[in-house]
Fold:
Amino acid sequence: MYSKEVMDHFMNPRNVGEMPDADGVGSEGNPVCGDMMKLFIKVKDNRIVEAKFQTFGCGAAIAVSSMITEMIKGKTLEEAMSISKEQVASALGGLPPQKMHCSNLGADALRKAIDDYRQKQGKGEETSPLP
Amino acid sequence: MECYFDHVATTPLRPEVLDAMMPYFREEFGNPLSIYPLGTKAREAVENAREQVAGLINAKNTEIIFTSNGAEANNFALRGIAFARQHEGKHIIVTRMEHHSILNSARFLEKMGFTATYLPPDKYGLIDPEAVRKAIIDETIVISVIHASPEVGTIEPISEIASIARERNITLHTDAVASIGNIPVDVKELGVDLLSMSAHQFNGPKGAGALYLREGQRIIPLIFGGIQEGGRRAGTENVPAIAGMGRAAEISKAELPMRVENIRQLRDRLIKGIMKLEDVHFTGHPERRLPGHASFCVEYIEGEGMLLMLAAKGIYVASGSACTSKALKSSPVLLSMGVPTHVAHGSVVFTLGADNTEEQIEYALEEFPQIIKRLRELSPFSKGWGEIEEGGTCIPKK
Structure:
């Protein structure tokens, strides 16, 4: 059902865990619906220098979380913000149609983490719409 | 090590069953309706299988109608009786423990002008016969109660419910797909009018099922056409699969009493080992359950993750988790038993069969705790669900 990339990120997830000194935290989902993702970022000079995640969810949700933390490292906040759910799914070699909502959760959690960072910086920008 | 603990999904085909099927793929390829010898041999194979399947459940040969699977038997039973008796009333009773083939047939009947009552189970997945009695109205014509749940293993009090149904002249159907091959099933003892079964659940082939229809019961066919199965189920019979089902039924009848105790002991060992783990809940009835069935909800993680990680270790299990199904809905069975939705996502089901060994149980008990630990390390809820807000959102504990 899953691609090699999904299984690799599920079995060997990158950047797992809490980040107590995170500059921005974003949570998306609801465990009652079956998935919840928490994304932590550390930002330096407008670039994401570190990212971590915690996820309650299926194999796809965990793989998406792992992949998105890899994709955003080193990117500017604007570049990270422009990552779409399709790009995450594509980097994972595709997701089954019924699992595409998992990649949505990843992109949404990222946006919330960036928003949180900006709020903390006093910039308070509104979440940009999903690309 | 490979451990197949998903006998609720399907069971391995026995070599003797395959041997019984092979001639009907090859030289004995006749159509059972043909009157020349090639057809006669195929007809004999079907009738021999009918006798073997009838023998497994203490029925008469004439009371067995072959279908293509258990889901077809369930559809046929509920819809066939409802339409046959609709002039007497248009109310049906089913339970929330049923397979989709019953629940969706009930919903279809509602669209056709019937009314349906969906009875909830208790926290162990048991249906109270008195609740069935209370749900009966003058218009009730058919009741369907699953014999044993494939999700939580609970065995329902069918004979008590049958007495109630008989008092009110209501037809009783039971879906015995999960129980046949795991516990002795006798239609006379159960007192049912109809019973569904599926060959691949008791070491037979996929593509063969049967419906027991008590003599004298009228039913409207699901498939119209020719005169096969006494005009009650049209279509050329799947002769090899039916021959295989018959042989599997014969083997099951002979071997079941010997293997039940061994399977039960292995299951109890598995349950004891898994229940030592923290925040793991046993689901289903502690005693009234299938001998090879062990089902749990593991908190803070999702079932599909467990299933995939166990599979990577060669351990094959099932889960009622939403994410293992395309419907993405939590198990209606677990929810109807009162399991909270977020906990139901952590469902994991081990179903044992005749080929499982002590070594496999030990291996599973060695690997499973590590998998739970690993997945909990990934979860924001590893320290607990915390508060649950209105609408069901959990706030992870700090």
Q: What stands out?
A: Chain B touches chain A through 30 residues (CB under 8 Å).
